[in-house]
UniProtKB/TrEMBL annotation:
<keyword id="KW-0472">Membrane</keyword>
<feature type="transmembrane region" description="Helical">
    <location>
        <begin position="41"/>
        <end position="64"/>
    </location>
</feature>
<feature type="transmembrane region" description="Helical">
    <location>
        <begin position="124"/>
        <end position="144"/>
    </location>
</feature>
<feature type="transmembrane region" description="Helical">
    <location>
        <begin position="84"/>
        <end position="104"/>
    </location>
</feature>
<keyword id="KW-0812">Transmembrane</keyword>
<keyword id="KW-1133">Transmembrane helix</keyword>
<protein>
    <submittedName>
        <fullName>Uncharacterized protein</fullName>
    </submittedName>
</protein>
Length: 175
C-alpha cells in the first residue's frame, strides 16, 4: 500500500470518527444533566468541542495531503506530524475522562433514574475517542514512513515521495 493511500485512509478515519464522536458528545450534553454523574456533562462538552476541532483540522490536513508541488506550510510533513502528535494524547485523555463517568451512568441500582440513557452513549463516545487516539498514532507512523529517506526529513512536502535510490542511499549512510 502506498504512503499516500495509508495517510489518506488514516486522515479519513480520523475525520469520520471525530464527526461521529461529536454527535455522541452532543447527545450526551443534551441527555446527561449531571445529576447522577458529577462530571459527565463537562466531559461531554469537552468531547464535543475537541471532536469539532479535530474534524475541521483533519479536513484541512486532508486537503493538503496530496499536493506534491505546493510550498504552503500545511503541505509540509511537519505540520501533519505535529498535528497528529498533538491529537493522540488529547483524544486518549478525553476517552479516559468520558469512560471514568460510565460507572455513574451504567449503575441501574444506585443513583439512577431507572433509564440509563448515557450508559451506552458514554461508553461508545469514550471508546471512539480512544480509537481516534490509536488512529492518530497510526497516522503519525504513516507520515514518518513517507518521509523516511528524505534528506530534509519533516521539512519536506508530505506528498513528495523520496525515490528508491535516495532511500537506499540514506539507509546505507546510516549503517
Amino acid at each position: 500500500m502506498s504512503n499516500l493511500t495509508l495517510r489518506t485512509t488514516f486522515y479519513s478515519l480520523t475525520l469520520a470518527l471525530a464527526f461521529c464522536n461529536q454527535a455522541f458528545g452532543i447527545y450526551l450534553c443534551v441527555v446527561d444533566t449531571g445529576y447522577f454523574s458529577p462530571n459527565s456533562w463537562i466531559f461531554s462538552i469537552i468531547l464535543t468541542i475537541f471532536c469539532f476541532l479535530t474534524w475541521i483540522w483533519a479536513s484541512v490536513l486532508l486537503a493538503f495531503n496530496n499536493r506534491p508541488t505546493s510550498t504552503h506550510a500545511l503541505a509540509r510533513a511537519s505540520s501533519h506530524f505535529y498535528s497528529f502528535l498533538l491529537l493522540t494524547p488529547i483524544h486518549l485523555a478525553i476517552g479516559i475522562m468520558v469512560l471514568s463517568q460510565i460507572h455513574y451512568n451504567c449503575n441501574t441500582i444506585l443513583y439512577s433514574d431507572g433509564e440509563p440513557d448515557g450508559c451506552g452513549t458514554g461508553a461508545t463516545a469514550g471508546s471512539l475517542s480512544i480509537v481516534q487516539s490509536i488512529i492518530a498514532g497510526l497516522a503519525i507512523w504513516s507520515i514518518l514512513r513517507s518521509v523516511t529517506g528524505s534528506p530534509t526529513g519533516l521539512k519536506t512536502n508530505i506528498a513528495s515521495e523520496a525515490s528508491d535510490n535516495e532511500k537506499s542511499a540514506m539507509l546505507a549512510s546510516q549503517a
